[in-house]
Design a protein that fits this description.
9 strands, binds hypoxanthine
Length: 274
C-alpha cells in the first residue's frame, strides 16, 4: 500500500485507540438490511463515520454510518454499521479501509454479513448461507499495488480464507438452535445491476451458490492481514433457472430484515467460542 494510505490508516487507528474503552478482538460488518442487529448490542460508544478522521462515508439507503463499540452476549465487539461498496464509486482502498483499521486496533476475527441472491435450487428466500469459499468476479483485486511485506504476503495463499473451525462451530450452534443453515460459495460482483437470468445461470455453472456486491474485497484484505474470517449471506431473492425474481433494493432490504433475528441468534451463540 502507498505511504499516504498507511499514514491515513495510522491516523484513524490512533483516534480510535485513544477513544475506545474496550479492546474487541472481534469485528462484525453488517450487510444491507441487517442493521437491526444493533438493537441487541449493549452499546458502549457509537461513533458516526463523519467524526472519525479519514473514515469514508456510506451513500446507500439501508446502510447507516456508525462504528459501534459494545458487547454482544457479553463478548466485546466492534461493529461496522454500514459498509462501503465498490459500486458506489469508491476505490478498493476505500472499500477495505475498515478492515485495515480493524486490524490496526487489534481485531483478530472478522464476521462479514451480506444480502445475496440465491442460485442454488435448494435455496429459499430467507435462508442463511455460511460462506465456505468465494469467487472474486469484481474484475479487480484490493491487493493490487505495492505490497508491504510487514502487513502480509505479496501472493497470499487462498486455500482457507473462511475459517473451517468457525464454519464447523456455526453448524454445531445452528443445530442446537434448530436453525436451518445452508453452506456454499459466494460470487462477488461489482454491481450495481442485479443479474440477468443468463448471468445467474452462468455464475451457478461456474460453481457459485449465491451472488452479491460486497464481502469478497473485505475478505481478501482481512485474510491478507491474517485475520480469521467467518461470513454469512442472507438469501434475499432467487436467481434460480425458471424462478428468477424481479429483485429490487426494497425487497432485498425487507427479506434481509425478516431473516435478521435468525442471523443474530446464530452469531450470539457463536461469539463466546470464537
Ligand atoms: N444479486 C446481486 N446482489 C444481490 C442480490 C442479487 O440477486 N441480492 C442481494 N444482493
Amino acid at each position: 500500500m502507498s505511504e499516504e494510505l498507511k499514514n491515513r490508516i495510522e491516523e484513524t487507528v490512533a483516534y480510535l485507540n485513544a477513544r475506545k474503552t474496550i479492546n474487541p478482538k472481534i469485528a462484525i460488518v453488517l450487510g444491507s438490511g441487517l442493521g437491526g442487529l444493533t438493537k441487541t448490542i449493549d452499546i458502549i460508544d457509537e461513533i458516526p463515520y463523519t467524526q472519525i478522521p479519514n473514515f469514508p462515508v456510506s451513500t446507500v439507503p439501508g446502510h447507516k454510518g456508525t462504528l459501534i463499540f459494545g458487547k454482544l452476549n457479553n463478548v466485546e465487539v466492534v461493529v461496522l454499521n454500514g459498509r462501503f461498496h465498490y459500486y458506489e464509486g469508491y476505490s478498493m482502498d476505500v472499500v477495505t479501509y475498515p478492515q485495515q483499521v480493524f486490524c490496526g486496533i487489534g481485531v483478530k476475527t472478522i464476521i462479514l454479513s451480506n444480502a445475496a441472491g440465491g442460485m442454488n435450487p435448494t435455496f429459499k428466500v430467507g435462508d442463511i448461507m455460511v460462506i465456505r469459499d468465494h469467487i472474486n468476479f469484481f474484475g479487480t483485486n484490493p491487493l493490487i499495488g505495492v505490497n508491504d511485506d510487514k502487513l502480509g504476503p505479496r501472493f497470499p495463499n487462498m486455500s482457507e480464507v473462511y475459517s473451517h473451525r468457525l464454519i464447523k462451530l456455526a453448524h454445531s450452534k445452528a443445530e442446537k438452535l434448530n436453525l436451518h443453515l445452508q453452506e456454499g460459495v459466494y460470487m462477488g460482483v461489482s454491481g450495481p445491476c442485479f443479474e440477468t437470468p443468463a448471468e445467474y445461470r452462468a455464475y451457478h455453472i461456474l460453481g457459485a451458490d449465491a451472488v452479491g456486491m460486497s464481502t469478497v474485497p473485505e475478505a481478501i484484505v482481512s485474510h491478507h492481514r491474517g485475520m480469521d474470517i467467518f461470513a454469512l449471506s442472507v438469501i434475499t431473492d432467487l436467481g434460480v433457472v425458471g424462478q428468477v425474481m424481479e429483485a429490487s433494493h426494497e425487497e432485498v432490504l425487507q427479506a434481509a430484515g425478516d431473516a435478521e433475528p435468525k442471523m443474530m441468534k446464530l452469531i450470539c451463540e457463536m461469539l463466546p467460542e470464537m
